[in-house]
Amino acid sequence: MVALAGAAVQAATITDVCTADYVVASLPANGSILGLTIDPSSVTAAPILNYSTGISFIDICDVNFAYSHDGRDDQVLLNYWMPAPADFHNRYSSTGGEGWNITSLNSSLPGGVEYGAVTGTTDGGFGGFNVTSNEAWLLANGNVNWETIYMFGYQGIYELGVLGKQLTRNFYNMSDETRLYSYYQGCSEGGREGWSQAQRYGDELDGVLVGAPGMRFSFQQIQHLWSPFAEYELGYYPPYCELEQIVNLTQAGCDGLDGKVDGVVARTDLCKLHFNLSTTIGQPYSCAAAAEIPNFMPALPAQNGTITAEGVAVAEKILNGARDDQGRRIYMSYQPTAPFQDAVTAYNETTGEYGPFLVLQSAQWVELGLNLLLNDSALANFDGVTGNTFRNWIATGWQRYQDSLETTWPDLTPFQESGAKVLHYHGESDPQVPPASSVRYYESVRSIMHPSKSYNDSVDALNDFYRFFLIPGAAHCGANPLQPNAPYPQMLFPTLIDWVENGIEPHTLNGTVTSTGEQQQICPWPLRPFWINNGSTLDCQYDQKSLDTWKYDLDAFRMPIF
Ligand SMILES: *[C@@H]1O[C@H](CO)[C@@H](O)[C@H](O)[C@H]1NC(C)=O
Ligand SMILES: *[C@@H]1O[C@H](CO)[C@@H](O)[C@H](O)[C@H]1NC(C)=O
Ligand SMILES: *[C@@H]1O[C@H](CO)[C@@H](O)[C@H](O)[C@H]1NC(C)=O
Ligand SMILES: *[C@@H]1O[C@H](CO)[C@@H](O)[C@H](O)[C@H]1NC(C)=O
Ligand SMILES: *[C@@H]1O[C@H](CO)[C@@H](O)[C@H](O)[C@H]1NC(C)=O
Ligand SMILES: *[C@@H]1O[C@H](CO)[C@@H](O)[C@H](O)[C@H]1NC(C)=O
Ligand SMILES: *[C@@H]1O[C@H](CO)[C@@H](O)[C@H](O)[C@H]1NC(C)=O
Ligand SMILES: *[C@@H]1O[C@H](CO)[C@@H](O)[C@H](O)[C@H]1NC(C)=O
Ligand SMILES: *[C@@H]1O[C@H](CO)[C@@H](O)[C@H](O)[C@H]1NC(C)=O
Ligand SMILES: *[C@@H]1O[C@H](CO)[C@@H](O)[C@H](O)[C@H]1NC(C)=O
Ligand SMILES: *[C@@H]1O[C@H](CO)[C@@H](O)[C@H](O)[C@H]1NC(C)=O
Ligand SMILES: *[C@@H]1O[C@H](CO)[C@@H](O)[C@H](O)[C@H]1NC(C)=O
Ligand SMILES: [Ca+2]
Fold first, then answer.
1. Per-residue DSSP letter, 290
2. Best mutation site among 44, 130, 134 for ligand 5 pocket (most ligand atoms within 8 Å of CB)
3. 373 lines ligand 11 (CB under 6 A)
4. Are 510 and 519 in contact (CB under 8 A)?
5. Model's pTM, two decimal places?
């Protein structure tokens, strides 16, 4: 290229523009969203030079400011990382959180900035970036802080995006005619937050990347309690090592069902159809002692023994999913090969026996979200609880948070009509959010948007803007240490960008095998992976019998569940 001698304005450097004064002059107008007032005195701007993302070194302008909702005495904090002007590629991206969090702090920001996107996160107005939604859920016992719930549900991420896009336009002097591509990326609770935007604000976005979304919020919280309840009902608390060995033997028993013995169970559906957990009874197990993971796993001593019929009965009851007292289905469960994390038991040094342990977030949900009690109270045990209690817990949460946290609106017409694209992925061995819950939402969108088309025609129609991928062997929002030979897609955001900006359709996803770095393709739903030619070629196949195993009749409820 020939230099445009003299004609071009000298491009601003990051140190020219990364000042509080420049950001104050670049702030969105107060009217960008009706009812919001931005506080210019809250602005900070600081350059972060030569930051290593692990992939590249980038220069960032770290911008913070606050706004309030008129008529409320609140304060919402925003943090945007802005690329150096020379590295800015006309992109904006919002990000979300995990668990009870609306934010992953700055950890999710580099993944946008390295693709030339201004990338932002919000504290939701809960009282600071390190305050989680559960700490702001109630005003007092019995009184929900609805502002927290709606901000967490969808409003906070919406405001983050609208203000972030306006800041971006002003900061980089973008003309009204220049297109600013708008994205969202997040996994788990962050995946739910992404769907909350695609479902409500279709025309605000060009591309959405969502992983393992906890989108059926009240179902998802209660589903975590089904595993410890299975132990309570069956009166058997297996040492965690026994359950770990059931997982390992399931993995070994199902490995070859996908056409290739490689340590990867790419077909948990075939595993479900063909593997009988009873075959593991009597097999030995042994594990070293393990340290506590706070709120998640208790400290465990060294364990050994042989797998019992009682242990297998617990595993089967978990995989069968939650049922009411009449045996009607309440929800779906994890796939075989998913670690039984929710079922971890606690060791009592005094008695030398194993007993119940409840995953904190879900035990808290019952007291905080349903019983509306403050002070970190958590469900202590299952005394008096039956299958019907599970159904009623879900119904209470579903009704109470129907228009805030339940995130399954299945009509994406405005999103599609605006030309936006969504890439949705879910690890097939996810031990925290059942992959079948993502399948259910995909199928809901398909059947609601295309009720009169044939199955294949409706999938083709969805491919225009919505593609869903089950990632073989993968865990929750990441690769699975138990299946290191499985492929994991490392380049999801650039794949989405290519689809949105260059029309390059992701027919498959590129996965990188964790152990070897080899590239493997990942099949798009509803096609399922199968290795042919002695395991040398991956074939993405249509298999009705397998697909049927992913679909559930939640007949404990009379309402449609999308
Ligand atoms: C928004 O309103 C506040 C309060 O009136 C004012 O301090 C601030 O300058 C306004 N911001 C802009 C960008 O106009
Ligand atoms: C950025 O940091 C890396 C590693 O410390 C160093 O090798 C490189 O020279 C630095 N680049 C600049 C422009 O300072
Ligand atoms: C990211 O946030 C953490 C606190 O969560 C902070 O310690 C760290 O300095 C921040 N990194 C940068 C580059 O600002
Ligand atoms: C949520 O945020 C809190 C406070 O920053 C942090 O301690 C916790 O690890 C986060 N939880 C998850 C699941 O990210
Ligand atoms: C939260 O962060 C603020 C600074 O932003 C700090 O003063 C406060 O101690 C932190 N609180 C917790 C619980 O970490
Ligand atoms: C935007 O324009 C102003 C005024 O011309 C200039 O001072 C500033 O450096 C420009 N910003 C960028 C990012 O180029
Ligand atoms: C299960 O397999 C993993 C290796 O994939 C191993 O680290 C672990 O110890 C095994 N668990 C049991 C109970 O044998
Ligand atoms: C699994 O095997 C056991 C013992 O042979 C048998 O009782 C049970 O019916 C089998 N389960 C299935 C689903 O076939
Ligand atoms: C198995 O565990 C018991 C205690 O439960 C212990 O006495 C025994 O030494 C262990 N055996 C092995 C082979 O680790
Ligand atoms: C262990 O068991 C003893 C005897 O039943 C009981 O008193 C104690 O509370 C238990 N400890 C824990 C941590 O549950
Ligand atoms: C929560 O605990 C604090 C300190 O223990 C106590 O002062 C407060 O009254 C409790 N609040 C409720 C609503 O029980
Ligand atoms: C997948 O990887 C191959 C080889 O590295 C590359 O040519 C191709 O563009 C990638 N496709 C996508 C969708 O990223
Ligand atoms: Ca295999």
1. B
2. 130
3. no
4. yes
5. 0.95
Measured at the CA of 38, the angle between CA 32 and CA 43, to 5 degrees, comes to: 125
Q: Which ligand is nearest to the CA of 254?
A: 13
Ligand 2 pocket check: which of 13, 48, 50 to mutate, most ligand atoms within 8 Å of Cβ? 50
Instruction: Assess whether 203 carries a catalytic annotation.
Output: no
191 φ/ψ angles, rounded to the nearest 5 degrees: -70, -40
The one-letter amino acid at 178 = T
Would you kindly state where each structural domain of the chain is located, as residue ranges?
Answer: 1-179, 186-215+412-526, 219-400
Catalytic position from the list 342, 430, 437, 438: 430
In the residue annotation, 333 being an active-site residue is answered as no
CA–CA separation, 462 and 212 (whole Å): 19
What is d(CA 334, CA 427) in angstroms, rounded to the nearest whole number?
A: 11
- Centre of ligand 13 to C-alpha 260, Å, is 4
Q: State residue 8's pLDDT score.
A: 46
**Is 188 annotated as catalytic?**
yes
User: Which pLDDT score is estimated for 10?
Assistant: 66
Question: What's the 351 CA to ligand 10 centre distance in angstroms?
Answer: 7
Query: What pLDDT, on the 0 to 100 scale, is given for residue 1?
Result: 39
Nearest by Cα to 48 from 102, 5, 87: 87
Q: Which amino acid is at 417?
A: E
Residue minimizing CA distance to atom 10 of ligand 5: 130
Kindly list the averaged pLDDT for each block of 10 residues, start to end, along the chain of length 562: 46 95 97 95 98 93 98 97 98 97 96 97 98 96 98 98 98 97 98 98 97 98 96 97 98 98 98 98 98 90 97 98 98 98 96 90 91 84 96 98 98 98 98 98 98 98 98 98 97 97 98 96 98 97 98 97 98
pLDDT at 9: 56
Q: Using a 6 Å CB cutoff, which residues line ligand 7?
A: 241, 244-245, 248, 285, 287, 482
Q: DSSP of 217-265, one letter per residue?
A: HHHHHHHHHHHHHHHHHHT----HHHHHHHHHHHHHHHGGGGT--SS--
